[in-house]
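Two proteins were folded this term; both appear here.
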Amino acid sequence: MYKHLPELYPRVKFIYYFDVNNLVNAPEGRKINNYAITEKKSILNAYKANVKTDQYLSRVDEDLTKSETYSFRDFFFYYGGELYVDYKFVRDYLNMDVKENSGKSIQVAFNGKSIDVKQESLKIDKAAFFEKREIKGLPLGEILDSFEVENKLLDGNLHIHIAN
């Protein structure tokens, strides 16, 4: 593609890749493929070599640990004016341990500290299936504040930075 693209389409200056591992990051039932180009060194190196020419405007960020952007849909909701997130987001994206206590209380642990938070449930429509699914939500702001995780709202997007 990179060999022939400049000849066939000289006005193309960049290519946008859907760079996500859906085997890990997609909701159940949609875990069908790994689209990540940044997970395999050989693919990343081939990409770097092909975009090196002046034909393309793109570049590769060498330090991928500085920040990462996640796309995560259908697992957030507001309850009582507070943002709740599905426990899977807390577990899989924030890498925090989540354990159910009795009742509606959930224990969240991170970096040797644990807190108990109230879980709220919300039933939402499954897209195009005319069924309902239940989201078990945890208060995101309370969790981030309790573990002193840096976060801010910019341009309508929540930016979370967890130091390694």
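Next, the second protein.
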Amino acid sequence: MLNTQWLHTFITLVEVGHFTQTAEKLFMTQPGVSQHIKKLEEQAGTPLIKRIGKRFELTPAGQQLYQYGVKRQEDERQLLSQLLADDPFSGECYVACSGSLAMFLYPHFLSHQQNYPAISIHLESAPNHRIIEGIKSSQFDIGIITHSLDDPYFEQTQIGQEALCVVVPANYPDEDLDKESLYSFGFINHPDGKHYLQQVHLANFSDSHFDFNKITKSGYINQLNQILLPVSKGLGFTVLPEKAVSQFSYQDKIKTLPLPNTVMQELYLLRKQHRPLPKRYQHIIETIIQLLSQD
């Protein structure tokens, strides 16, 4: 790495054009200026100036180093200016949440980005463990998870809750939640399907034992916006958060069975403890809290 102080002395010398005046400008002695130039030449491994009496000329290497040094100083000035500015309407925002919440929140984020094109929203749908690891590794700055953490590494805020829905075809004959007929009808599984169904089972059926292997499976899909498609065609049932259900295009083809005991998922906004976020996250966080606390 080039010594910053020596490089600054060299740039000043080139711009002033005189050793004595450079020394006066930098509050140094003339031998001190000469010493800085000599050390910089040793560091660069090549002569930077050619003395001609009381004046000097830059060598090709000196000219190249001067251009580099000027650009480096300008880059540093711009960086410091940007750090001090912290523009709330410019920069990248990295957010992670479940697929259902991503479908619900993303249009609102895009509206904000339309109003302020210098904002760039990076939204990833992921399960809880992936969100937690992503925040820990700084891949995401904020995330939404469905359980609290006993970990001082994170700051978490409860921001709302979301119901799990048992979704069946619109022509499903039973309005009541009958376990035997439902489980034999066939389950459309998905990455969180087993977990969601287990929560519904434990909250609504008298037997606490849940054996996923004994439930008829009618299919599996990992694309959130496609999970309800086989349900709408009468091929089975599934369990999804209510926001995923509300986003489905063919509402007349599905219905939600009433549950004696509604299962609610708590929603927590997660971020690193003691890590200040840029001002551009303020609107994103306010939007999330406003939309999810309404439920």
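Residues 163-264 form a domain with the D-Maltodextrin-Binding Protein; domain 2 fold (CATH 3.40.190.10). The mean pLDDT is 92. These notes refer to the second protein only.
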